[in-house]
Amino acid sequence: MLNTLDPMKSSLLFLLLAPLALFAFDEKPHPFVGSVERLDPAFDQLVAPTTKIEKIAEGLRWSEGPVWYDGGILFSDVLANTAYQWKSGMPNAVPYLRPSGLFTANAGIREPGSNGMTRDAQGRLLLCQHGERRVARWENGTFTVLADRYEGKRFNSPNDLIVKKSGDVLFTDPPYGLTDISKSKLREVDFAGIYRIATDGKVTLLSKSLPYPNGLALSPDEKILYVGSTEADAARIYAYDVKADGTLANERIFFNAQPMVNDQNKGGCDGLKVDRAGNIWSSGAGGVLVISPAAKLIGRIHTGEQSSNCNWGDDGSVLYITSDYFVVRVATLTKGAGW
């Protein structure tokens, strides 16, 4: 069953209850050190040797969920409960949806804003809303709830999502949005699931084996689902075979990034995307790891900070990376799957 919510009254209530600083940019300067590292000759077919990393927005609290939408890159600041947009020529990003994920103050919410975002086949914006603990669609000034429960129980805090060619929505549900995370008293399900929302609204649990499933992406032929894991000391990408009925089989570790994680290269395998040749571009270890379909690391994009996610924009060849305090972009020689 789909439900609609006019956010205006709820937004006004939330703005009265929430501290103004929740929505402010962090104005202090942050150092930016970026570089591109070639680890295999195949990387030259994806990123030119002279490519530079360009910082387009900064001063954020924790950037996430980039998606190309309405002629620019839209991304979440999960802690600021705001989705920002940047378009070419802007000196910095501007608020696009505020609030973006929580409309009624709740002491049990650790990360109130939207997290992962994507577009459906009609170009409409879909969001994982940590604060409201749901997956929703934004259209014509109104949020439509696609799913907020499984078997009558509230989700933890939907984190990232993708849309299949069939129109089905897949999303992950770790408890990162909740105060005390896995020990939160608000939890109604005691696992972190990978779910499917069918076009008729039915919610199906596809897997509950990973304690912290995060970003997810499909191979170009949609036969393999890749899922990033941000489990402590286990930075990995998992792969699943997608069966004809849409369920998952043959869970396995596709790539282990943990040996690369250290004090200078922080972050697990969070958000990830796939290009048209099937290469996986995953956040992790201080930037983005570029991995072939055969699970070989062929290149790295170092942002100098823990990176959360990435996505394609412009004509599909520009990779936007949300990286803690800032957002950067990198021109590539490929395009994202589906562009």
Helix count equals 1
Spatially, the strands of the biggest sheet line up as 1-11-10-9-8
CATH architecture: 6 Propeller
- Supply the CATH class: Mainly Beta
Helix content: under 10%
CATH homologous superfamily?
A: TolB, C-terminal domain
CATH topology: Neuraminidase
Tell me what portion of residues adopts beta-strand conformation. 35-45%
- Main beta-sheet strand count, sense and barrel state: 5 strands, antiparallel
In angstroms, what separates the terminal alpha carbons? 31 Å
Q: What count of structural domains?
A: 1
* Regions with little confidence, pLDDT below 50 for 5+ residues: 1-25
Mean pLDDT: 91
Shape: globular
List keywords for this structure.
5-stranded antiparallel beta sheet; disordered N terminus; 339 residues; 28 strands; globular; mainly beta; Neuraminidase
Describe this structure in words.
The chain has one helix at residues 7-17, and strands at 3-5, 35-38, 54-57, 63-69, 72-77, 82-86, 94-97, 114-119, 125-129, 134-139, 142-147, 149-150, 153-154, 161-163, 169-173, 193-197, 203-207, 213-218, 224-229, 236-242, 248-256, 272-274, 280-283, 287-291, 297-302, 309-313, 318-323, 326-331. It has 1 helix and 28 strands. The chain has a single domain (3-26, 60-273), classed as TolB, C-terminal domain (Neuraminidase, 6 Propeller), CATH 2.120.10. The protein is globular and about 50 Å long. With 339 residues, the protein is mainly β. The chain has a 5-stranded antiparallel sheet with strand order 1-11-10-9-8, with no helix packed on it. A 5-stranded antiparallel sheet has the order 2-25-24-23-22, with no helix packed on it. A 4-stranded antiparallel sheet has the order 3-28-27-26, with no helix packed on it. Helices cover 3% and strands 42% of the residues.
